[in-house]
Amino acid sequence: MKVNTEATLDMYNTVTMDELERVITTNMKKIMENPGLSATLPPILIHSSPGIGKSSLIKQIAADLGIGFVDVRLAELDSVDIRGLPSVDKESGTMRWNAPDFWPRDPKSKGIIFFDELTAAPRDVQVASYEIILDRKIGEFYKVPDGWYICAAGNSSTDHAVATSMSSALANRFLHFTLREDAQAFLRWANVNGIHPSVTGFLTWKNEMLFNMKDENLEMGWPSPRSWHRVSEMVHIYGDDEAILRKIVYGLIGRRAGSEFIEYHKLNESFDSVLDMMYGKKPVVIPDRNDMKYSLCSTMVYLLWRGKDKEDEEKRIEGFYKISSKLTSDFASLAMINAIAGIKKGDNKVCAPKLYYHNHGKSYDAWQKANGAALRKRMSV
Question: What pairs with residue 151 in β-bridges?
Fold first, then answer.
């Protein structure tokens, strides 16, 4: 009998961001079709290191599906915040719980209730959450409407994050996944969410810098998807002030990664002329160093779909093909994949045809002859 060694060795049931998104989205779509399934499909508990992006992923899934989203930050709550306050009925003398107003009540509504920081919550808060997670109710006075799916997330104690052990009774009711760092998934997300090209270019060049807790001062800044997102925001604001930007970047991702990024960003800033190359105002010059080629490609893709009108966009597409024709196939195919994705989720349905049919398809045909094999190889990975 052939043994699946990968499954045998994976003691933590690790998944990529794409795999996790597929499972949650599929389960939620099934619940939208048949709300009664919400009581039988197991709630999902996502284990991961802090800063990976699990919270953002769940929120984005809800937004993409057009459904409700309730974010319950358990580490910030007391047990009474979960169950609500008790009151006594004057006529019967019986006590009842008054559930908090953030729990969904519309029986026709659909959405995701997300218990974040579950493993960081004190034991009494975990206990208070048992009933709504396991039984989908609070006493006899509140029931989670059919159509709402329950997910949770928690940090791993091995990553020096705040974590409280979970009872076996609660753990046994979850479908457990361990989310691993995924540079390619982050870059796909970054390319369609306006992340600064210095960040996307740097992380394309150095994937291993996406997430690193080893030999870092974990009481200060260190590299994670969350902190890189914030680096991007700060570069947009302070990009012209190197002195203060350097201090900000060090404060977000630490000195080791920060010093490398700042040097890369300074190189990237030298590509302010990329748009002039796309417009044909300057000759196309491809640098020799790979890090600078990554910088060129990330900047070109960032600029591609940000034209002020249709005519401007056509000029940028023409420039994209002009620069791509000078790149080696590995960089040209990387640029094409990112260009097809556009600048927001779902853009690929619009952007891909614009690239394919530009100049009556002649531009892409020429590009395909030169780089098609490299593109197919990269897309198959």
Answer: 44, 114
Please check the confidence at residue 38 and state whether its pLDDT lies above 80: yes
Ordered by where they begin, the domains of the chain are 5-180 (3.40.50.300), 184-380 (no CATH)
Q: For residue 274, which of 325, 234, 322, 313 has the smallest C-alpha distance? A: 322
C-beta separation of 18 from 24 below 8 A: no
pLDDT > 70: what percent of the chain?
A: 92
Q: How many Cβ atoms are within 10 Å of 311's Cβ, its own excluded? A: 8
User: Mind listing the pLDDT tens digit for each residue in 342-369?
Assistant: 887 778 899 999 999 999 999 999 999 9
172-175's contacts with Cβ under 8 Å and 24+ in sequence apart are: 173/42, 173/43, 173/133, 173/134, 174/42, 174/43, 174/44, 174/45, 175/42, 175/43, 175/44, 175/45
More confident residue, 219 or 210: 210
pTM of the model: 0.68
- For 91, the token pair is 């006529």
Please check whether residue 315 is in contact with residue 359, taking contact to mean a CB–CB distance below 8 angstroms: no
